[in-house]
Design brief:
Blueprint (H helix, E strand, L loop, with lengths): L1 H21 L35 E10 L4 E10 L5 E7 L11 H9 L3 E5 L13 H16 L4 E11 L2 H11 L6 E4 L6 H16 L8 H6 L16 H4 L6 E6 L9 H12 L5 E6 L7 E2 L2 E2 L3 H11 L10 E3 L22 H29 L11 H31 L5 H36 L6 H23 L8
């Protein structure tokens, strides 16, 4: 009897492991075979053209309001004081998570002190939410601010460009393609690939840096590739390629080589290829050693970054194709950012919520029916009918072990995510926690098998009197709910697999 339960437990655990490995989609990122080799480690912009260095001029700032057709945003203009002639201008476009007109203060002050007019408008938030973002519409809003800068006294209207950082680097090419008068484009930490591909690439990079077990990587396409419950997020599949293939302006691309969230080799190569479709070869690429997504090292902007911005901008059009075209630290990118397969219907969109909600509803039915039954019995002055021992404790243990798996799994993923985002490692928790999850999953199955066996024994021994109608509801809802949670846990890789 003992060995039979052991075999049944083993078979169920293997079955759950197969659910995890075969229910898809799988995660098989392909190595990136292309590479970029900087001509020199010196990031300085070449050519003989003379430009004012950072710190040449005093600066002044002006904060004012810009109307965007139904909305008003504040904007900060940072301008050089006493710079002769008409000067270039740069409009800044925000990345995700930023949006104030006070952002980019270091870049704005440095550029203005070299003789460049800088405008940083607030991000328009009435049309920007987590679930809905219209990048072409955002580009049109930014072009309103671009026109304000172009017409500002002291600005050369033919030399007003755009600076897009991170998410803003999807928007900048749209603005430049829609408005050919945009003088140049600066892309900093540009994703280039569609947002869903970039998020999956970033998740893979971060998790590999933490050193997670390979099985956990399967969660990437199942999470990032899924359609969110309730819909929305159409922008996750936005492709900037059609606009990049219309770029005729000079383009400066800047990355930090410690930026694990961006395809720092694949991205620039894609932009260069897209520009070539428009007959445009005016590109410059710079890599900053040890710099992160914000091009910062230990909280400070990377050395030489501000000088590159100022000299390249002020030296145009000469610096548009000045050698070296690609310089700085050697970038490394192991895997390609690529399109993701979507999960099957049973683990996609609203089903992600309904399956989990259904499992917990089933689990809640059991204690609710138990409590009502005891209350009714007491009101009638009767002794509550109880489960034949040891069914009550096995039923409760089955429920609690299934819930415990989900709680521990969520806590484990949250801790791993915290490690990844903070560039830390903890092998004891990462690998030990994964083993503990497997052990907890096996224990939950063993408890469930023991509970089912106890119910079968009670039925054989006591016949129909083993369960009242209420107890049948309690037992079935508890075990069906627990089984549902275990299937969900199996899908996310909690059980060990042979594949």
């Amino acid at each position: 009897m003992k060995y039979r339960k052991l075999v049944v437990t083993l078979v169920i655990v293997i079955a759950f492991g197969m659910i995890g490995s075969l229910s898809g989609p799988r995660w098989t990122p392909q190595p990136l075979e292309q590479t970029i080799v900087p001509a020199t480690s010196d990031v300085a912009i070449g050519s003989e053209v003379m430009t004012d260095p950072v710190g040449t001029y005093e600066i002044e700032q002006d904060v004012f309001e810009i109307e965007l057709g139904g909305a008003h945003v504040l904007a900060t203009l940072t301008a050089p004081v006493g710079a002769p002639g008409e000067r270039p201008g740069v409009l800044f476009m925000h990345g995700a998570g930023t949006g104030a007109h006070t952002n980019f203060a270091d870049q704005a002050v440095a550029l203005a002190s070299a003789g460049v007019y800088v405008l940083v408008p607030e991000k328009r938030l009435d049309t920007y939410t987590t679930a809905s973002r219209d990048y072409p519409a955002m580009a049109q809003d930014y072009l309103v601010s671009w026109a304000v800068l172009r017409d500002w006294p002291g600005v050369n209207p033919d030399m007003v460009g755009v600076y897009g950082e991170s998410e803003g680097a999807w928007i900048a090419p749209i603005a430049a393609a829609e408005e050919p008068a945009v003088g140049f484009v600066i892309l900093v930490s540009a994703p280039v690939v569609p947002p869903r591909e970039q998020m999956a690439f970033a998740a893979d990079s971060y998790l590999r840096n933490v050193g997670v077990p390979e099985a956990l990587l399967r969660a990437i396409p199942r999470g990032v590739g899924a359609h969110p419950p309730g819909g929305g997020f159409e922008y996750a599949d936005f492709d900037a390629g059609p606009w990049q293939r219309q770029l005729t302006q000079p383009v400066l691309m800047i990355y930090g080589t410690d930026d694990a969230s961006m395809p720092i080799v694949q991205g620039p190569l894609a932009v260069i290829d897209d520009m070539a479709a428009a007959g445009n070869a005016d590109y410059t690429v710079r890599y900053f050693e040890g710099a992160n997504h914000g091009v910062r090292v230990n909280g400070e902007l990377a050395e030489g970054f501000l000088d590159v911005l100022a000299r390249w901008t002020l030296g145009l059009p000469v610096t548009a194709d000045a050698e070296p075209r690609i310089a700085g630290d050697q970038p490394e990118q192991r895997f390609r950012a690529a399109p993701l397969d979507h999960p099957h219907w049973y683990a996609d969109g609203d089903m992600l919520v309904w399956t989990l909600l259904g499992a917990f509803v089933l689990l809640l039915v059991a204690p609710a029916v138990w409590a009502v039954g005891r209350g009714v019995a007491r009101l009638r002055g009767q002794r509550p009918h109880t489960f034949p021992p040891p069914l009550a404790r096995f039923t409760a243990a089955t429920m609690m072990s299934a819930v415990a798996i989900m709680v521990v799994f969520v806590a484990y993923v949250a801790y791993v995510a915290s490690l990844a985002l903070n560039y830390r490692t903890d092998d004891l928790v990462v690998h030990g926690g994964w083993v503990a999850l497997h052990a907890l999953g096996i224990l939950a199955v063993a408890v469930g098998v023991r509970s089912v066996d106890a119910a079968a024994n009670a039925r054989r021994t006591l016949g129909r009197t083993a369960f009242s109608a209420g107890h049948a509801v309690i037992w079935w809802s508890a075990h069906l709910g627990a089984t549902s949670l275990l299937v969900i846990a199996a899908y996310w890789g909690v059980f060990p697999t042979l594949f």
